[in-house]
Design brief:
The complex is a heterodimer. Chain A is mainly α. Chain A has a single domain, classed as 3 helical TM bundles of succinate and fumarate reductases (Up-down Bundle), CATH 1.20.1300.10. Chain A is 69% helix and 0% strand. Chain A is built from nine helices and no strands. In chain A, α2 crosses α8 and α6 packs across α8. Chain B is of the alpha+beta class. Chain B has two domains: 108 residues, Beta-grasp domain (Ubiquitin-like (UB roll), Roll), CATH 3.10.20; 132 residues, Alpha-helical ferredoxin (Fumarate Reductase Iron-sulfur Protein, Chain B, domain 2). In chain B, the strands form two sheets. Chain B has a five-stranded mixed sheet with strand order 2-1-5-3-4. In chain B, strands 6-7 form a two-stranded antiparallel ribbon. The chains are: A mainly alpha, B alpha+beta. At the A-B interface, α1, α2, α4 and α8 of A face α2, α6, α7 and α8 of B.
Chain lengths: 238, 254
Amino acid sequence: MAVTESPAKGRRSLWLLDLYGSAVGKKWAMALSGIVLLGFVIAHMIGNLHMYEGAAEMNEYGEYLRVIGGPIIPHTVFLWLIRLPLLAAFLIHIHAAYALTITNNRATIDKYKQPREWLAASYASRTMRWSGVIVLLFVAWHLADLTLGWVNPDFISGEPFHNTVVSLSNVGIAALYIAANIALGMHIFHGAWSLFQSIGVNNPRFNQWRRWLAQGLATVIVIGNISFPVMILTGVVG
Amino acid sequence: MDLTLQVWRQAGPNAPGRLVDYPAKDISPEMSFLEMLDIVNENLNAQGIEPIAFDHDCREGICGMCGLMINGLAHGPQLGTATCQLHMRKFNDGDTIVIEPWKAAGFPIVRDLAVDRSTFDRIIEAGGFITVPTGSASDANLTLVPKEVAEWSMDAAACIGCGACVAACPNSAAQLFTAAKIAHLSLLPQGQPERWTRVEAMVDKMEEFFGSCTNHGECETACPKEISLDFIALMNKDYMKAKFKNRRLVSQAG
């Protein structure tokens, strides 16, 4: 027996792929892409607070996102420089989750007959796959609704205030947004804590802060995002 | 105490298994859980029924052989102890107790409640050994270790390899075991020369048999030695560092 075996899988020429080939590496990918997505979700929520300023300011904000960097950078180029890494993070996050789920299903062929008594696992942690799928489906709907306007008959390009108000005035659609954001909040509640473990950010002095950060982020994002359909339905905005 | 047991019976590794009801009568609350099983087995034997196979050895919580899923909890309802340290006073007269073996693809069932945990040995083997000076024993305290580091390393070394972490994990992941076995060496100066090859080899070997961590924390509460999730974070960090490290410079500090 050698003193220490070299890595069992053998080195691939692309070490980044070699790293991603391991489950620990995939958890790193999930954590890092999760941070990117979390950053987007926070910025998205804060940016949308312009809804409370009124139509002109909201539309101006939407247009400003397209002219950032101009006139040196052409129209919408900056926006796409943000969107593409975001899309990459989204795809990596989903692929890693999918691959790890397969790994875990393979490792847990046998199930206990008795119902498990969970001592540490939270409802949020046990439903990450479900909340993730709900968020994925919601993002598809959300893009079709307010970015592309495919499912929004009154959609007017360049007028996000109007589009948001007509869409969320519908009780059914507003309910969908509220439900999806609760799922998103639960996903963040576990994910924003879990990611610190996955990338090994662990210091007894600050460990409790990781929980507080995750709980705080989940609360702020859910309240912020849900306020839009609620305020539009109650007629405060619109 | 009179109890009803629902015990997992399985004749062999590939035989189908099922829960079978057995009465456990006149059980003293002073008995340990394994002594209760001994009594039940004696009665089964007297009736000409094949006794229930279960693993056990030291019966004082230090060997890691025993391990049962009792009412949906690894090592039963008492936290921070192994199955052998659980006493019947934790149960009430008339209770029904469901007893299953550890269930994970990495722990194939040998028979009834006994599982094969040799995949843990494969992980330990992959770690290899550490380079230490041979010959006569060196002076005590020749290698200085801060008290807190020694304590923390000892906390990891407390792992008895019982497999409760895997059994309790919804993903059948062996992260807590592997992390503890990596950490008790990598925290100490003696464990530094092979620190990066060891974490890589042990994690890769672990992933051949077990699932992946989703940070539920069930392993930590199931662990009879209350080993901390912090070791899993350390393993994740070291695994990534190992992938970046220029191995020709590992003797340099920082």
